[in-house]
């Protein structure tokens, strides 16, 4: 089968011919029909994450093997079943939960695969969806998407799930308590849509792009602020009070510092993005202001199932999606566009 892979120390995407895998046990092989392009893939292609003064955490440091076939927002059609897969039907269309754990630790036993310290995530530690076919090790990770556009459904596996999980960490609040969303790309727009769906009213979007801020307002943001050196002052003036919560889909040194500065006493910072860097926080203020800082990485299978159910009701607005064909050149171009900030919403590749 064709796979579109990255090699170590090489940012190009290579069209590689590899063996089509055979499902075993409860495993399922699917034909890829949609693959969303996520900002995480730009970091994977670059080979690591910026840790500020601690240097770079490379994919090799994490034990990732190459060639790496990325792509973790995947919708596919069931092609073959392992001998113990009894709940799936050949020809059915499924959304894949990619955040797969070891299956044995306490977190996995409790349904929190995304918290597993030995995770084998699709598109990172296992071959992902930038390919003709994808192997899922257990059919429990497949979710029905009847009634949902498959391109939008693909984004629910990461963009949607990550936003949904982050919103869960800040709600419930009174509807008029300010929540500030840093980054109005695919994740930020989805978070705004989810906040509106759950009845929240005071939502401030912050971004460097006027186009993204326009989209944020269309999705339901009550306030929009351009990200610059005056962002903290402008955000507080826009919402009228210190923020009760911040969801930071950028999470670099500048946004994290601003997030801490604009929070009310006992406010919540949820740090999601992987742009990297570091932040210095006065430890006395951390205690005196009782600020709660929490990292958030994607979400659970149960949360993705809940999100899909909400989407199937038709009450959740779609984020803007650009469709392109699934091939090596388009994978590379989509990643280049994301890196340069040239994407509003989400790019989804179609197989």
TrEMBL record:
Cofactor: Zn(2+)
Pfam (any one): ADH_zinc_N
InterPro entries the UniProt entry points to: ADH-like_C (IPR013149), ADH-like_N (IPR013154), ADH_Zn_CS (IPR002328), ER (IPR020843), GroES-like_sf (IPR011032), NAD(P)-bd_dom_sf (IPR036291), Zn_alcohol_dh (IPR050129)
One function term, GO molecular function aspect: oxidoreductase activity
Source organism, top-level taxon: Bacteria
Domain Enoyl reductase (ER): 76-349
CDD domains per record: 6_hydroxyhexanoate_dh_like
Gene3D superfamilies listed in its UniProt record: Medium-chain alcohol dehydrogenases, catalytic domain, NAD(P)-binding Rossmann-like Domain
Recorded family membership: Belongs to the zinc-containing alcohol dehydrogenase family.
Full protein name: Zinc-binding dehydrogenase
Organism of origin: Corynebacterium tapiri
Lineage: Bacteria, Bacillati, Actinomycetota, Actinomycetes, Mycobacteriales
